[in-house]
Amino acid sequence: MDEHRVPVAAGAAEVWRALTEVVGRKRGGRSEAYARLVRAEPAAASGPALVEGSTLPGMRVVESAPGRRAVLAGRHFLSRYTLLFELVPRPDGSGTVLVAGTYAVSPGPLGFAYRQLVIGSGAHGKLVRRLLAEVRDRAERGQA
């Protein structure tokens, strides 16, 4: 569906720490309210962020390789989706590239309308880019 990349002037361990902190803050409040509204599974957060088996509202961590990769999956009545985070060393050794890829299936007419609203409007891309920028900024501040 979409993929976003951001170069980070920090090593993978620092980027992972920042990613865990940022994702961990998405665990309640509006996220859980939205998850309940769309009947997401799982609906609530449990366990530590980005640890295999833990949950966030609407997503379960199905794979976690600290410093390298995290895969989250979920579903609700309009869509089934996977969010992949990968940390890739920059070829010149100057840090890490943080990649976020989203893959989703939204079947039927309601799914099509949902996809247009979320993806077609640009809202999803904006939210993902904001999340990646926040992770980058935290990781780079951690290097100072």
Structure description:
The protein has 144 residues and is α+β, with helices and mostly antiparallel strands. The protein has four helices and six strands; from the N terminus they run βααβββββαα. It has helices at residues 12-24, 30-37, 108-120, 123-142, and strands spanning 2-8, 55-56, 59-65, 69-76, 79-89, 96-105. Strand 5 and strand 6 (96-105) form a beta hairpin. The longest helix is centred in the last third of the chain and has 20 residues, at 123-142. The model has no long low-confidence stretch (mean pLDDT 90).
Sheet bearing the most strands, described? 6 strands, antiparallel
The rounded distance between the terminal residues' Cα atoms is 35 Å
Number of DSSP E strands:
6
Estimate the global geometry from the Cα principal axes. globular
- β-sheet strand percentage: 25-35%
Provide the structure class: alpha+beta
Output mean pLDDT.
Answer: 90
Radius of gyration: 15 Å
Helix content: 25-40%
Strand order of the largest sheet: 1-6-5-4-3-2
Order of SSEs: EHHEEEEEHH
Low-confidence stretches: none
Count of individual helical segments: 4
